[in-house]
Protein 1
Amino acid sequence: MANFELDEVEVRELRLGTIKAFYGTGEELTAKGSCGGLGDGKRCFSTSSYCSHITAMLDISVISDVVVIDHGPVGCSAGIINWNVNYQGIAKLAGFKARRIKVVSTNLLEADTVYGAEEKLKRAIRTAKARHNPGAIFVLSTCVSSVIGEDIAAVVKELSVELNLPIGFVGCAGLRSKVWATGFDASKHAIINALPIKKPQAKRNVVNYIDFFAQTTPTVVKYLAALDLKPLYLCCYSKVADYATLAESVATTGVCKTLSSYLGAYLEETFGVPYLKNNFGIGGTESFKSWFLDIAKVIGQEDKALAFYHQDLEDYEPTFRELKRRLKGVRAVVTLGPGFAFDIVSLLEELGLEVIHANAHHFDPVIDGVKGDVTTRFDHPVSTSISDMQHYETFKVLQKLKPDILVARVHAGQNYALPLGIPCVSLTGFESFGLEGIATTGNLILENLANVNLVKKLAAKTTLGFSRSFLESNVESFVIKEAV
């Protein structure tokens, strides 16, 4: 159980036993995780990764009426430019009003690291209040502000009283955790402490749905409407006032457990709002059916939900049969975040593909809000690895296995497949959600397999910049297994 009263969230490595380096099988991963025998491997070097600071910023900045103060060098905020473009474009597609994300950098300079910058932070907060009149302000720590000992929590408490405004401290300095998903927890931890959730007087026909951009909106709305329910999206497109009402919802779910577990666990432990953590609807027909029935069980509408699901399934069954026929025997490698990777393996196998390797960017043996030894299960004999975007390892896996296709996400693994002549499909989660998502995923794979002309030409004209010793090495040699 997490300690929700701390100024800064407990990192995933300590709270959940998260690991970032593993090679073996899915069965071995689950077996060792369930008995506490899964030690995190160590890498002799690291070429790239992601930062828990930026994931916290991305997650909390999409609340519609907040301003984010990034207390650090201006470069720490640079990633928000691309996120802002994506956010505005996807908002329109999802049927929401597009707006500009508001992030203010305190632009820490060398002199600030010597003399301190708390007054600079106070000016930034006051300016943000005067300029934007937000519903709340969230102040993010960075590696620099943490190393020089800035007391952000004290500044936040002082200015919150002075401005009569909810101001939250997001303790998300990248050096605190090597697991970027800790940033999602940090943003939710700050929300819990800055935006008090009221004890419910009555329940509303609402389901809390925790998502990145709400691209699953058409299917979520359609299926919840069949149960006379509506989604409340978090954090994307939400407003500060929405958070006071979260305990009035009948349940909490989301696009994946990595993003949703911290807030979902808090609502369940504190207010008794069920966190539906077993299925997220992206792992094929059974996964989606279970997601829908889990919601229906909360309100006693299982029979109604099952009838609606099967009626919808009838329309898709001919498409699924055709996809299975055309995709049978296609060999795939999967490299995705942990909230997607193992579910997508099930989806691909249901479509007839042969998954020959599954890679997740980290692995949590236990997730928030669940009592017991292990809740993350992947009882599958397939070759499995855990790596936090170490794409030189992705390259080695692809070089060895030579799959027909790589199924990846947005973390640049595709760049290492194309020089090998391997086509790629990029999934962001919504493409595989629900029955429509299953069909979309299958068709995306067929489209990419049908036209490999560009991929083959790139491979023929690309000179790999790796040494002979690296090309001849074993990928597992880069990871030192740690004894438990």
Protein 2
Amino acid sequence: MGKKTLWQVFSAMPHRMFFALGTVLLVLPMLWWTHYLYERYFGELYQLSHPPIHAHVMLMVYGALSQFVLGFALTVFPRWLSTQDIRPISFKVLFLLNLAGFLIYSAGLWLGGWIPAIGSGLVYLSFSTATIILLKVLLNSQHPDKTQVWYTWVAFASASAGTLFFTVYLVLDEAVYYRLATGIGVYFFLPLLVLSIAYRMVPFFTSVVLEGYQVRRVKWVLRLWLLACLLKTILFVLGLKEFYFVSELGLLTGCLVQFYYWDFFRKKKVWLLKYLYISLAWLPISSLLFALFSLDAFFTGIQSYPLELASTHALLVGCISSLVFGMATRVSLGHSGRPLTTGKFEDLLFLLLQLTAFIRVGGELLRIYDPLWESYIGLSGVLWLVCFIVWGIKYFPIYFLPRIDGNPG
């Protein structure tokens, strides 16, 4: 067999294509957003086809962070369920739909008209098609226990609804559809997705590294997490944020119970494993901040926007982005035939990402008392860019290179 072309190598497995797109979307939209934050801070605003914060949600929630978990799911669903791999033509079409969708949507931010809706519609088509493909894998599998995989699929199905609502919002310019898209993406899709995947993978990874570790998963925790995420999404859409503390109680309870059975505080010498546990530690921090925000609103009747943003970014930057960093690093190493070990390069970048989250969350909390702290929010964007640009310099080329051990994939 002759030497494979660049496209053949790149399109050999789903994670290669979607991780590469995710890496680009982690950098370019954040470069624009950080520039926007500094322009806003100094009073220089520019007009887009719709509010910049709405574009930020679309590009980061349904764009950057989603590409990694989509590529991961298309790769591992058949392995989890002991079925045949997804046909290459299927994930290639999904990738091209996503690529075209985000390119057209991004251009439409400045060009306006129907262009943003066309781009968003292509992203919706990609997510909805992926949902159908993953459903077929589930239904065709004879695996005796598909519980966790069903929860992961439900999360993907919700992303289809979220991107559809965002597209409808762009067409009709009705705020309720943007609220639905944001609520589903931020409070249901991403949290349930990473929690359901962590439920399976964290104890598995830990058992590989720690001798004598016993894998223990509490099944009712998944149900509690799903109900809590659903309740929080409903409360957000209805504007009843002062009752968030109810949903946070469910999320926090599930975390504390499952963390206990995962032996969360057991010493872990391998940094690649530490990434996962440090990332997950941001989840109860986010829940506590959201609970504080809602109780403050409940008793005072005033919603603290900085406190709400601090809670949201503890979830999205502290927890989910850190988990994506850890997962992408591990998958990129393992599926390219490289040893599953990190060096100071990755470890320092991960710690830089934790500093980014700390500044982003802390900047919002301090802004409650002094508006000047808003300048530090832009600093978190700069640190984010340093982290993922440097990470991408090492890992982005891997997706275009054959496995170093000569195996296919």
